[in-house]
Specification:
heterotrimer, A mainly alpha, B mainly alpha, C mainly alpha, A: mainly alpha, Helix Hairpins, elongated, disordered C terminus, C: mainly alpha, two-stranded antiparallel sheet, about 75% helix, about 0% strand, globular
Amino acid sequence: MSSGLLFAAVGCLLLVLGVGGVLLLDHLVRRILAFNLMGSGIFLVLVGLAQRSGRIDPVPQAMVLTGIVVSVAATALALALARRRYADSGSTTLQDKARREDRHD
Amino acid sequence: MSYNELLPLLVIASSLLPGFIIFILPERQIVLRTMFNLLGAVTKLWLIGLLLVGVTAGEQYGFRYFLAPNMELVFKADALALLFVSLSASLWLLTTLYAIGYLEHAPHRSRFFGFFSLCVTATMGIAMAGNLLTFFIFYELLTLATFPLIVHRGTPQAMRGGTVYLAYTLFGGALLLIGIVWLNQMTGQTEFTQGGILAATDGISRTHLKLVFLLLIAGVGVKAAIVPLHGWLPQAMVAPAPVSALLHAVAVVKAGAFGVVRIVYEIYGIEFAQSLGLLLPLAVAAAVTILWGSLRALSQGDLKRRLAFSTISQVSYIVLGVGIFGTAGTVGGLVHLVHQGIMKITLFFCAGNYAETLGIHRVDEMDGAGRRMPVTSLAFSIGALGMMGAPLTAGAVSKSWLKTGALAAQMPWAIWVLSASSLLNMAYFLPILYRLWLKPLPAAWPHEEIPVNGVRETHWLLLLPPLVTAVATVAASTFSDAWISPLTFARMIMGIEYHTPP
Amino acid sequence: MIEHLSTPLVWLILLPLVWATLAFCLGPGRGALLGLSGLGLQLLCAILLAVEVAPKQTVTHLVGGWQEPLGILLVADGLSVTMLLLTQAVSLPVALYAYSYLKQGQHWFWPLTGFLLAGINGLYLSGDLFNLYVTLELIGLAAVGLVVTGGAAGQVTAAMRYLLASLVGSGGFLLGVALLYGCFGTVSIRLLTSLIGSQAPLAVWLAAAVMVAGLLLKTALFPFHFWLPPAHGGAPAPISALLSALVVKASFYVLLRLWLGPFAGFVSPLAWLPALLGSLAILWGGCQAIRAERLKMMVAYSTVAQLGYLVLIFPLFGTGSHAMQIGLLQATAHGLAKAGMFLAAGTLVKASGSELIDGIATMAGRLPVTLFAFGLSGVSLMGLPPSGGFLAKYMLIDAALAVGHIWIAVIVVTGGLLASIYVFRVLRLAFLGPGDERQVALQPVSAVMEWTAFMLAVSAIVLGLAAMPLFRLLEGVAG
């Protein structure tokens, strides 16, 4: 297995973890972290798969840089919304209050 | 664009544009609104006059326009179209006059007259449609434009009537749409052509053609109120009297009956439809509707409801005429398209007069009204006698042609149906006439709104239209051989459809 | 330098970016005027571009003169120009409406709308997959921002759900891009189309699967629609209009591009899948709209249903019908009609002070223009003639019957009947007489709000009478 494929395989693993987190977790900050994990996974797949031939390919590097910028922006927006949600309703999840209290206790 | 292309479009525009202008006009601009309304109606009649002269001289009028690839909007003003167009346009003028008097102090008149003009526009489109797609477009437009009129009063009953109307007509529209697309798939075109388009095509499954016929006839049958698709018509009678006139005589039920005529004669072709065995079931459905409508009318205490069931029965005379294979039956059906319109609008105008002037809504409140409102009652009596098929009225002409047709087509049962219907008509109209003329005046009217003013029993705008149509009812029979009469015109159309002079 | 700026292509992306940034700096007052004039210029650019594209079929532009693959190639063909025209034609009246409608949210509305439109226009002009990803993300972020401009707690929750769904969707898309780049070393749609044949390796199948799934999530196709009704129904009316009319169309456009381009060789046996989901969307969305109690929720569920029609065309590709044109016609008709309906609904809610459907009682006599707008939009959504919606649905039934897909025809007709139930359920209330106990005192609404909605609704109707230019524009598009 070349190093590129290894990167890609690890990326896939991170991706699966990330998607699982976004979909299944309750706490908003955890979900946002999971989204970042998912993004990193995809970037690894992108860089890893492109470098199988051994030589450095600049195009995916440029793409990943752009992708990182996008995901930083998305994270910032998500965190702002999560803070707002907390300020409005004191809740750190998207569920309504009754259900959240069931979960926490 | 040539003159012959422009003329049908102008006929449509002559009610569409006034409609748009009326929508925009503020409520209080009564004079301006009335002016545009009448201007549109008179212009339309004049344009139709031009068309009539041209068509009798053998001119072709038509217009084609691509909406999308393989979807063509086609108008053609042929003799059959003109029969319907001239009926609707003349009655539109009268109904507009009537409505101006009837709604004198009612709210939302801009909206009312705007939609009224749209309804007439849709009817013109239906009449002059040159293919099934165009027919469908205006058929649905008619549904949309009548809804606000039916619910115009804004009462819960009006809402119920409007909802029932929509449920029936939109469902019927869906059936019609499927039928049209399906037929288009099989034949590649759905243009209305003399003698039909199907006889010339080979290799189409006859079962499929029968199914499509069922879909199409069910689709137009909803508006024509063929049993069991008639449920909306008695519900819709809660609308103001001019709207009832529109529904029963000018536009809606006529559009359905006209659709039956177009589909049978110009899509299937009368000979081909006969060879598929489709005419007999159609005639039977019509016969059932005729009897059912008359029977139900007997037990209605509400005057307009009784008239509504009477319409269900009378409109199917037209369908029966189509179902009777042969020239005479068809002439009877076509001429009844016009005659029924004239007679039924007279009755609804009069019913509106009784309601507006004296607050009479029920049959048992009509005692002695003939002495209080002699002119209205005279018009009502002529209309009712016409419905019964009494001599010297338009109804007699239709019935005699229908009976001749039934004899020629060896359908003696149809004659029995027509006679039974005449008897039933007498059974539900004669008691009204008896009450009108022979019963003594009551102590007080239910709700007298317009007092007697010299010889004028009610508002003159309410009086004039029924008088005109009552006179027309008699004239259509007395002068049935004149070159301008509906009968002459119907016979001319028959000559074209059957390729033989009748 | 000059020749790079002389094409309307670039200005369609630059203009909104410029006025959005300036509006952010200048504040809502002058920013709004700048935004409105910018939108006017954009509409002009889109029309110029359409005139340029119509005879040549395709117009391309290399941004800054840099060659591919590091440079960005902008491509405009009939498909993209149609969507661009729709976008500018809807956003101008919506922005006018917003100018008069929004009170507190103005400060954020103009910059965010500018970025949203830059993203949408950029997406339609992209010639490569990665650029599509970036614009999809830009659209998603700006749209989420717009949903919360009202600032209510419900909007924040809806926006958060929307954001997470959107991020997962574009994540799936980016994974697909990564896989395709790994296989072929390019992200150019044109090159990929020629490289991917009918025998696709597993990685390409996987890429197609995650990209399509991600795009369906962003398009809110049933059963991925869960995020749409609260976001579209909860946002302020002009923003709902932008989201429902334009934003969901963007991801649908990408789906269409991929389906007709790189994936065309091998996905056609699976075309029934999106169509099946579309059918369920039509039925489910229709039923939910009938059951809705709040007016804007009803309109939002109607969007769920109408999006279903867009994907019903997928089994009809390659059958000799005008499947792609039908899809675009439906997208255009829905865009115009839905924007008109959301704006009208916003006016009605504002005037009556009630979000419930009952608030519309007796409005026919009091806000006739708005009610007309609502009704005319409804006519197009129901697919009744004459309207763009009618043409699309008629042609869809026709094309479906031609290849024996009777079920599609049945779904289309049923969907139309469901739509007529939910539209007339609202309209009939409006005609109730003044004596009705549900009548409330009216808040004043501006004429601009009434007439912008009306113009949009009327254009949906007029589209039904003048659709031939659209068909001519789409004639040369592959697929």
